[in-house]
Q: What sequence folds into this?
């Protein structure tokens, strides 16, 4: 009886949020593709990542896990402490086994991250300050800290401070080529201003930042990042552009990304073309690509198969690298995700590291 | 459902291009015979192509961030087997273990503390980081001309102050004093009391009677040539003037594996004490 009450509360909360068209949750892009929701609207940050909003927490307790476990009360966590304050957090702990050819294998337990999120809305839905702080391991580090103003119709917003740059698919794996090679990932927030646009089927952000990954700015050059996405129920398509102008030269990226749902499988794809004047005497041209299939095995279970390609220099033959991942993700109950997977690197034979294999298990706690 | 699974598997694998076979390329994926400036997985190449042109804009001199100087002559001693200041449980470079090396974490942007390096420029390309990883995985050897080669024979055993340098004023706190030799020293001598560190007592004078001895531990960070880290046992060095004294004379002298004592006083003959004076200033 109590379980049913809690579930009804959550469903009511989800419905309320949906109807009022507030931020919609997305823990990973494939969730959004699977649910047919807008990518940019499940986190406080319009481009995703970081703190989940009330719907995100409600969805994570009802639709995502294999089952629910019950506490002693009937209240359900939403992250929203009041109209003015919201909290959230993430913890990832890993066990990793790495096998590099011609070297001894290594295994390691590690705390990947413990992060806390705080949003203070001085004027609910209109004016807010947001903080994303990594607490562990090591010392505390600020990842995002910005103030955001949103227009009354919720279509336009502008934020200033330090934030993740908008570009491409914001997938969780920072080691993916589309995240590592582009340099746009959860480790490289930057300082600047961003203007965002949200409508029922469009999400777009334009950011101008220092281009120094939140370091000090030594020159007048700035980084411009643009991301636009059109979302339909079954498919979505987007494009991104990024130019970082520095005294050392320009680095420019342009790419497209997409998602589509075919039965139980949610597909993601992204391709980026990079030109970089900072790598040597001549401009270097690179490609990165990703295609990912997320198969809904059962309630709370996802099987993720990813293939990636990295072309380090289009003017050099036979230097391409691939990376394949097979990851099983299981959410046994709300707020806990278990991940077990393997990542196989496939590069040129004379480089051992380009041919390493990584096997890992991860516990991801989130609220 | 089965069709969908097969479709996912086949399509995903089919869309991924084959990896290069590496023909005509070196281990960094660059064409063989490309200009000599091509980065190679050895320390001299990394110094020439990464540390010197990219990193020393900030990481140089007495005020190098976190005491990490990456100019030639200092970088190896301050990287290899040197604990990170930001994450003391990690070494900046742990030979044969790039994943546990803080340098790689900082370059890849996966470090737990601070921003990705290099701060003032775009992130290093993935292949550059891969080359540095390769150097570390290969054992992080020192092949610089300053004494990295074991085949080089030096007539004199010399010591060089890496950080701080002689008579230098450095921001505090200072966690260790790093001294490098041009050869491999006899590490067993570190058990004796031939290394002493004194603080001036605040007056910058070392013969006024108010000096105090700073207990230290000496460890070998790397050899061939030897890099010594002299670490205050109780707390990092705060504002004061300091004098480090390494004996090069009897009864116990620092010496190499052939029992040749150091030329500590730089007079061109074996023997003589090595003396390093420096000043720590607290900036905050």
A:
């Amino acid at each position: 009886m109590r379980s049913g009450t809690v579930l009804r509360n959550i469903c009511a909360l989800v419905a309320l949020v949906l109807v009022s068209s507030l931020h919609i949750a997305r823990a990973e892009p494939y969730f959004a593709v699977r649910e047919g929701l807008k990518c940019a609207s499940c986190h406080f940050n319009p481009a995703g990542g970081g703190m989940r909003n009330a719907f995100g927490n409600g969805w994570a307790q009802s639709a995502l896990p294999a089952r629910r476990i019950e506490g002693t009360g009937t209240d359900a966590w939403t992250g929203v402490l009041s109209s003015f304050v919201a909290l959230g957090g993430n913890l990832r702990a890993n066990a990793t086994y790495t096998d590099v050819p011609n070297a001894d294998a290594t295994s390691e337990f590690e705390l990947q991250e413990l992060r806390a999120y705080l949003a203070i809305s001085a004027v609910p839905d209109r004016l807010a300050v947001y903080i994303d702080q990594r607490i562990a391991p090591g010392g505390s580090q600020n990842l995002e800290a910005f103030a955001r103003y949103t227009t009354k119709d919720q279509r336009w917003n502008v934020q200033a401070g330090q934030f993740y740059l908008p570009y491409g698919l914001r997938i969780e794996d920072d080691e993916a080529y589309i995240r590592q090679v582009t340099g746009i990932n959860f480790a490289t927030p930057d300082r600047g201003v961003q203007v965002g646009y949200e409508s029922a089927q469009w999400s777009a952000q334009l950011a101008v930042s220092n281009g120094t990954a939140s370091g000090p700015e030594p020159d007048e050059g700035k980084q411009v990042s643009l991301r636009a996405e059109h979302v339909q129920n079954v498919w979505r398509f987007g494009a991104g552009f990024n130019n970082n102008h520095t005294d050392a030269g320009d680095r420019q990226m342009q790419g497209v990304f997409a998602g589509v749902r075919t039965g139980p499988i949610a597909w993601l794809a992204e391709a980026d073309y990079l030109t970089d004047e900072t790598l040597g005497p001549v401009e270097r041209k690179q490609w990165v690509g990703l295609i990912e299939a997320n198969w809904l095995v059962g309630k709370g279970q996802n099987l993720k198969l990813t293939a990636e390609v990295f072309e380090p220099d289009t003017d050099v033959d036979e230097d391409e690298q691939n990376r394949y991942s097979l990851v099983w993700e299981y959410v046994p109950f709300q707020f806990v995700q278990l991940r077990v997977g393997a990542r196989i690197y496939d590069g040129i034979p004379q480089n051992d590291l380009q041919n390493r294999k990584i096997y890992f298990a991860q516990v991801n706690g989130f609220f | 459902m089965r069709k969908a699974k097969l479709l996912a598997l086949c399509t995903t694998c089919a869309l991924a291009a084959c990896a290069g076979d590496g023909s005509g390329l070196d281990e960094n994926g660059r064409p063989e015979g490309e200009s000599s400036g091509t980065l190679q997985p050895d320390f001299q190449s990394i110094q020439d192509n990464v540390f010197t042109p990219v990193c020393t804009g900030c990481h140089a001199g007495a005020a190098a961030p976190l005491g990490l100087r990456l100019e030639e002559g200092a970088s190896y001693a301050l990287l290899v087997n040197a604990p990170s200041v930001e994450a003391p449980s990690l070494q900046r470079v742990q030979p044969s273990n790039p994943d546990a090396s803080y340098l790689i974490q900082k370059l890849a942007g996966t470090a737990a503390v601070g921003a990705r390096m290099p701060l003032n420029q775009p992130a290093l390309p993935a292949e550059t980081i891969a080359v540095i990883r390769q150097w570390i995985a290969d054992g992080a050897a020192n092949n610089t001309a300053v004494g990295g080669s074991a085949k080089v024979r030096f007539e004199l055993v010399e010591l060089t102050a890496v950080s701080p340098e002689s008579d230098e004023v450095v921001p505090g706190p200072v966690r260790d004093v790093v001294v490098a030799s041009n050869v491999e020293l006899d590490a067993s001598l570190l058990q004796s009391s031939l290394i002493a560190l004194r603080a001036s007592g605040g007056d910058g004078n070392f013969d006024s009677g108010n000096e105090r001895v700073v207990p230290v531990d000496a460890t070998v960070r790397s050899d061939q040539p030897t890099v010594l880290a002299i670490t205050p046992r109780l707390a990092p060095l705060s504002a004061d003037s300091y004098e480090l004294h390494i004996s090069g004379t009897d009864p116990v002298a620092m010496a190499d594996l052939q029992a040749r004592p150091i030329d500590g006083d730089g007079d061109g003959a074996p023997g003589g004490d090595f003396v390093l004076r420096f000043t720590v200033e607290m900036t905050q």
Q: What stands out?
A: Chain A touches chain B through 74 residues (CB under 8 Å). DSSP finds four helices and 16 strands in chain A. The radius of gyration of chain A is 21 Å.
